[in-house]
Structure formats: C-alpha cells, structure tokens
C-alpha cells in the first residue's frame, strides 16, 4: 500500500534521520578522536572539533602495530574464508536440492545442526584438531590397539602429526563450513524453475554441466551477497586468529589492534588507537561499497 | 525420424495412479496431438516419452528400442516447454546452441547451424539479445529453435502456445504446422485447447482421467466421438446432451416430457441413453413446425459470422449455432430441427458410444 500524506512522510523521515544519527555518531567520534593530539584526546569532555594530527596518528598507528603485513594476513584469511564458503555452500546446496539419495534428509539436518554449534562452542576440539589434523586417526589407532600392534610387529611407533597452527590453512579451513550459506543457496535453487533443469537435461547437460553452465551464472548475485557477508564476518574474527596464531607472522589486523589499546598505567594514546581502528575498518568498507549493488540484489532477488 | 510405440504404460505417484495403461502407436513423421482437460495425465505421458518422468509400468519404445531406462539425452527427443524454459543468462544464440556446445560440436560448425536455424525462424536479428528482451512470440520461436537445432528424431511440445495471446497463438500454430511439413519429424503435441488440437493433428488422442478415450483423425473424433466425454470435450460450443429412454416408437427425452420419433435404433426398449446433438447440426425454425422441438430462447451470443443461441428445453440447457440471418429475441419461442443421422447415442451408465441405425437408410429431416 502506498500512501501519500505529507505529515507521515515528514514523520518517517525524522525517524530515519534519528536512526542515521545513532548509527553514524560513534563513527564520527572515532574520526575526531583520531585527529587529536595526546593532550586533546584526553580532555574531558573531548573537543568535538577535529584536531590537526590525523595523518600523523595514522602513520604512528601503522608503524606501531605493523599493520601492513597484518592487513595482508587479514585479507588473505577473509578472502579465503569467503571464497571457501561460497564454493562449499553452493556445492552442498546443489547436492541437497537436486539429488535424491539415501540419507539426504539426515545430511540436511546435520548441516542444520551446525547452526547451533558456532566456532566459540567447539573451539577446544577445533583447536585440538588444527594443532594436529591427524589426531583423530591417532586416537582411533590407539583405542583399537593398532598402535601397540604395529609397534610390536615392526618396532615403529606410530605417531601421526600434521599441525596447522600458524598457517593460512589453519586460519581459513575451520571457518569455512557454513550452514547459513547452504541455506541461502538452497532457497535460491528452490526458486529456479524445474523447467530450466529439464530443458538442460533435454539438451544433454549432465549434473555438473548444469551446475556450472546454468546454476552458477544464475546465482551470481547470491554469490556476491554471501561473499560480502562472509568477508566481513571473517575479517572481524578475533577469537580464532588470536588462538591459532602464536607467531606474529600470521596475526591478523583485528587481533593486532590490541597492541594499540593503551594498557592500564601506560600512556593513554587513544588517538593512535582510534586511528588504527579506522585503518582496519577501511577494507571491509571498501568491499561493501564495491559489492553493494550485487549484494542488495542477492538478498532481495526477485529478478525475472 | 522415428516411430514411437507405447504399451500399457502406467504412472503412479506414491499411492496415486495418474496414468492407467496407455497404448499408443505413433508412426514416423506423424503429428500426434494429445488432447485432454488439465490433470488427465497428458503431460505426464509426454514427459515419460521425454524421459523426464520414470515409467511406473509398461514400455515406451522409440524406433523399436525400449527407452524406459535411457536418459533424456540418449532418446533423441527435443522438447518445447510451456514456459519456454530459456536460460535467462544466455543470449538467443547461446540458448539455441547450448545442446551443441554440450555435445562438443566445434564452434565454427555451431555458429553455422545456429545461423541456419535462426534464418528458418526469422530470429537472425535477435541472436545477441537475452530472453528477457524478447516478446512472447519471439521467446517461443527461440524455444523451437533450441529443439530444432539438434535435428531430433522426435519433437515433443508441452502446451507451448498457451502463454501466447490469441492472435499470436493462431500464427504460431500455422508456423508449427508448416515447420512440421518441412521437417517431417515425428511430433507429439500436448494441449487442452481443442481448436489447436483439431488444426494441428494428423492423429488426435483424447485423454481423460489417465486413460485414452479415443484415437483417430480430428474429423473422425469430431463426427464419431467414442464416448460421451469425447463428445462433450471436442467441439465448441459443447455438444448438447439430453438424457432419454428408448421407447417403442422412438425416444422419450428429459424425463418423458419430450417425445422424439426416430427410426428403429436397435437398442432394447427401456434402455437409458444420452442423446447428443452438435449445436452446429441444429436448425432454428418457426415454433409449431411439425416434428421440431419447442424451446424458449435464453440468450444470444453474437459472433459476427454467426451466433450462438442458448435455449431452454424444459430446464435443460441447449445451444444452437446458426449462421442464418435469424435474430431470435430472448424470451421468444423457437423450434429446433435436426436430422436423426446427426444424433449420437451414448450409454447412460458407461458413457460409451452406442451404434444405432445400423440398418437404416439416413433419412434427412423428420
């Protein structure tokens, strides 16, 4: 229903504007704080007029936290997670929607259940597995007594070990499995007319051919939407990178922000911390702005 | 080119059986139209020929090879879908050429064949467009092109014209007919539109409730409907049906309120029958004309070339198509006159056609 009443129009705009101010205000404060010098930023209340030290603060933050390589790490991780999620969820949804096989429903619910098991819940076992990917197999060998048997027979002690700590693989892999993405694709695949599938079958296209030639091009918008969301999500990950990167070389920008936050009793350099925040915030912002057109279409897709 | 042999084919979904033992022979190069109301199983039958539905029982053979277990691509059929099912992200050329691309035809040959098909269907200037930028008729032609380019043994059409407007439908109908004459490929065409069916078919198959009611040429089906269902389904306006009983000297209709003197029907006296008469076979005469049924005019529909007159025959609806320049006024009385050879008799119980007047010489007007 579309109504045209000047008063309601005005009123809704006021609400929109208030909401906008609420959203943008903290961001503005961060920018202003990042432009002050050490003395001004610690004034109470802090002056809301921008200072002159913006670029200086940015430069200091950049060098102090060594943000160059850390941003690169973050980017590799976020891009890897996003790409992995897009591919994995497209494949799983394809399997669930287009194939009838025994246990299909069971697998569907298995994926569904992972929604209730976010990384934070399963972080200890996940860490154990990543620390040694082969440890489950080792356990199986130990429990069944095979380790003992092999040692007795050949004199070799079996000890399987493949660690992924401090590696990009370790950063990316455990974050890839995703129920959300699978559902997004599933919903989209269900809207693809059956006749299209049948036409492809009549044209002689096998399942993989159909997936690559027809489904993937049609789900471009979904991919963009999912990719963007997952990029942001992965970029903002804190707990997992913190846990798995014991070595500075693989630390991400978000975890390194901590370096800039003043310690209790240290120099309260909040202006530097805010400048660092701005830098770390920038890449996701660019991604969102660049992908916005596809992103919105992907989520409200009613394209005919 | 291929013949299709369908033997005792059934289809069930879980507990519901939708196709009950269909037998059908389709000769090479024949244009067969399957006609029936929605839900009669005609599309299901077509999709079983195409390989898009599993066959629950019986066999379908194309060119003598049983294809029950074959994938659609191995059957050599091409299908035109009701909603065209064009790939929205591909251009017209890509849509038409997709099957060739899948089967690995080199790009040069592909382009050549796409051009040839596009020329036939007058699509040359549209080859770079996306389906979204096409009109309904153009999309329809692209869908046809996609089927044609594979030079299939069998063309399958699943109500391909039902999404077009009336004028375009007539035009595409004749184009399909012309195309069939040129390619002479075996074609199976499913529709619920009887005009489409009559005009296109070499052989008409009327289906109802998952069974084949009648197979024959359109003229045969029209003039000698095998069952009450076929009689009322084929022809527009529908054939008039009057319930009656066979009496010694003819028929009593509509619960004895009307008598009709006809020659000996050969049916046992007292048997219940449904008597059908086509609206086109009835003449309007002045009320009181001997041997004519009297009725009251209800409604007149002007068709330009003629008019449909709906009359009330003791409460039973009855329609008459007339091209004469009579203009009956609603409420006035008219006489209905027809030849007894134009009467169709059906069993009231089974609905099957009853053969009557076998020995009698056709006597025109009574």
UniProtKB/TrEMBL annotation, chain A:
Superkingdom assignment: Bacteria
Record-level GO cellular component terms: plasma membrane
GO terms of biological process kind: transmembrane transport
UniProt-annotated location(s): Cell inner membrane; Cell membrane
Annotated ABC transmembrane type-1 domain residues: 71-291
Transmembrane stretches, start-end: 7-34, 75-99, 106-128, 168-189, 272-296
Alphabetized Gene3D superfamilies for the sequence: MetI-like
Coiled coil: none
Entry membrane topology: Multi-pass membrane protein
Listed InterPro entries: MetI-like, MetI-like_sf
Main localisation: membrane
UniProt keywords, alphabetically: Cell inner membrane, Cell membrane, Membrane, Transmembrane, Transmembrane helix, Transport
UniProt family annotation: Belongs to the binding-protein-dependent transport system permease family.
Role played: Part of the ABC transporter complex UgpBAEC involved in sn-glycerol-3-phosphate (G3P) import. Probably responsible for the translocation of the substrate across the membrane.
Subunit structure: The complex is composed of two ATP-binding proteins (UgpC), two transmembrane proteins (UgpA and UgpE) and a solute-binding protein (UgpB).
Protein name: sn-glycerol-3-phosphate transport system permease protein UgpE
Gene: ugpE
UniProtKB/TrEMBL annotation, chain B:
PROSITE patterns given in the database record: ABC_TRANSPORTER_1, ABC_TRANSPORTER_2
One GO BP annotation of this record: carbohydrate transport
SMART domains recorded: AAA
Cell location: Cell inner membrane
InterPro entries to which the protein is assigned, alphabetical: AAA+_ATPase, ABC_transporter-like_ATP-bd, ABC_transporter-like_CS, ABC_transpr_MalK-like, ABC_transpr_MalK/UgpC-like, Mo/tungstate-bd_C_term_dom, NA-bd_OB-fold, P-loop_NTPase
Keyword vocabulary terms for this entry: ATP-binding, Nucleotide-binding, Transport
UniProt keyword Ubl conjugation present: no
Gene Ontology CC annotations of this record: ATP-binding cassette (ABC) transporter complex, substrate-binding subunit-containing
Membrane topology: Peripheral membrane protein
Residues forming coiled coils: none
Gene Ontology MF term list: ABC-type transporter activity; ATP binding; ATP hydrolysis activity
Residues in ABC transporter domain copies: 4-234
Family note: Belongs to the ABC transporter superfamily.
PANTHER family linked: MALTODEXTRIN IMPORT ATP-BINDING PROTEIN MSMX, OSMOPROTECTIVE COMPOUNDS UPTAKE ATP-BINDING PROTEIN GGTA
Annotated protein name in UniProt: sn-glycerol-3-phosphate ABC transporter ATP-binding protein UgpC
Species in which this protein is naturally found: Mesorhizobium neociceri
Classification lineage: Bacteria, Pseudomonadati, Pseudomonadota, Alphaproteobacteria, Hyphomicrobiales
Gene field: ugpC
